[in-house]
């Protein structure tokens, strides 16, 4: 698939569905079908495969995961669209010349080097959020994308949500007046853990608990609302303050079970971000 055709592929909508421009969706020719390899077939990867199966003009042709039962689950879903190859080594998947692009839905820590390897292999990349772990690794990916001429998309899918695009439009048009402050929260009542069939898989399944793999609540939850806030205000923050702790779930986790962050923007606007795992009062909110 040529770059100009790939670029017409829409982003994920607010429900995670793939969307196309009407022209691309109607094409039937095999040469116009986007062939996708999915790296990481855990919960998110399996969801992506389900949506791919429902979308015209895009076919899953390969899956990869280092956990055998996750790979099997991914292949089961992907095979509904046809013959699919399974890989335990993502680099072997990247060697598959039939693949036009890859979806990276692995733990956060793996995004950077996998994205660079995929670009070097000539693939377009859809990389789940949060994009890359660490500033230096982020710079490497940005530089690589700039030099390769391939499409790289990060999975902040709310940019495709009609609700959020409408709100941002109204803010930028001045219909809501001058923004004085923004307050965001994403609270849950649960330990954020996944069931582990064998203790040897603990760190790979519950990777969100461990600093080696994860950015914790900030990367996994707050990043969505930070992205929207930057979008609404048209700028990244100039100052950041934050705190948090492991104050309730004393279960061996390394990432905080509660976080509280303040962004200050060039305009002087302050934005607050809170995420709890011990009390779901108020659930998900963005107040402007």
Characterize the structure shown.
By secondary structure, this protein is of the alpha/beta class. It folds into 2 domains: 3-158, 3-Layer(aba) Sandwich (Rossmann fold), CATH 3.40.50; 161-287, Dihydrodipicolinate Reductase, domain 2 (2-Layer Sandwich), CATH 3.30.360.10. The chain has 10 helices and 13 strands. A 6-stranded parallel β-sheet has the order 5-4-3-6-7-8, with helices on both faces. It has a 5-stranded mixed β-sheet with strand order 10-11-12-9-13, covered by helices on one side. α6 links the parallel β6 and β7 (124-127). α6 (111-120) packs parallel to α7 (135-148) and α8 (162-172) packs across α10. It is globular, with a radius of gyration of 20 Å. The termini are far apart. The model is unreliable at 1-29 (pLDDT under 50).
Do you know the CATH topology of the largest domain? Rossmann fold
The counted number of beta strands is 13
Calculate the mean pLDDT score and round it. Answer: 90
> Which outline best applies?
globular
* Radius of gyration computed on alpha carbons: 20 Å
Fraction of residues in helix:
25-40%
Which parts are unreliable, with pLDDT below 50 for 5 consecutive residues or more?
Answer: 1-29
Query: Order of strands in the sheet with the most strands?
Result: 5-4-3-6-7-8
Question: At the first level of CATH, what is the class of the largest domain?
Answer: Alpha Beta
Please state roughly what percent of the residues sit in beta strands, choosing from under 5%, 5-15%, 15-25%, 25-35%, 35-45% or over 45%. 15-25%
Considering the protein shown, what is the CATH homologous superfamily of the largest domain? NAD(P)-binding Rossmann-like Domain
**Proper CATH architecture of the largest domain:** 3-Layer(aba) Sandwich
The SSE string, one letter per element, is HEEHEHEHEHEHEHEHEHHEEEE
- Provide the number of structural domains: 2
Tell me about the biggest sheet? 6 strands, parallel
Span between N and C termini? Answer: 42 Å
Structural class: alpha/beta
């Amino acid at each position: 698939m040529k770059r100009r055709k790939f670029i017409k592929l829409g982003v994920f909508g607010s429900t995670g569905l793939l969307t196309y421009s009407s022209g691309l969706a109607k094409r039937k020719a095999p040469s116009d079908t986007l062939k996708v390899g999915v790296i990481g077939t855990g919960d998110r990867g399996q969801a992506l495969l389900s949506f791919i199966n429902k979308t015209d003009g895009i076919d899953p042709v390969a899956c990869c995961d280092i956990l055998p039962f996750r790979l099997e689950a991914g292949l089961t879903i992907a095979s509904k669209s046809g013959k699919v190859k399974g890989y335990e080594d993502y680099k072997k998947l990247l060697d598959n010349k039939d693949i036009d692009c890859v979806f990276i839905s692995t733990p956060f820590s793996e995004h950077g080097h996998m994205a660079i390897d995929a670009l070097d292999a000539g693939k377009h990349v859809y990389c789940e959020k949060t994009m890359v772990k660490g500033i230096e690794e982020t710079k490497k990916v940005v530089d690589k994308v700039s030099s390769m001429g391939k499409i790289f998309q990060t999975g902040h899918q709310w940019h495709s949500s009609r609700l959020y695009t409408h709100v941002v439009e109204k803010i930028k048009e001045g219909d809501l007046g001058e923004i004085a402050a923004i307050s965001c929260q994403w609270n849950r009542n649960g330990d954020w853990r996944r069931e582990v069939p064998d203790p040897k898989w603990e760190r790979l399944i519950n990777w969100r608990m461990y600093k080696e793999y994860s950015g914790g609540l900030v990367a996994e939850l707050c990043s969505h609302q930070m992205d929207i806030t930057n979008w609404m205000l048209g700028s990244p923050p100039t100052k950041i303050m934050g705190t948090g702790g492991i104050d309730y779930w004393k279960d061996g986790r390394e990432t905080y079970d509660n976080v509280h962050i303040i962004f200050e923007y060039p305009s002087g606007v302050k934005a607050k971000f809170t995420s709890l795992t011990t009390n779901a009062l108020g659930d998900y909110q963005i107040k402007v």
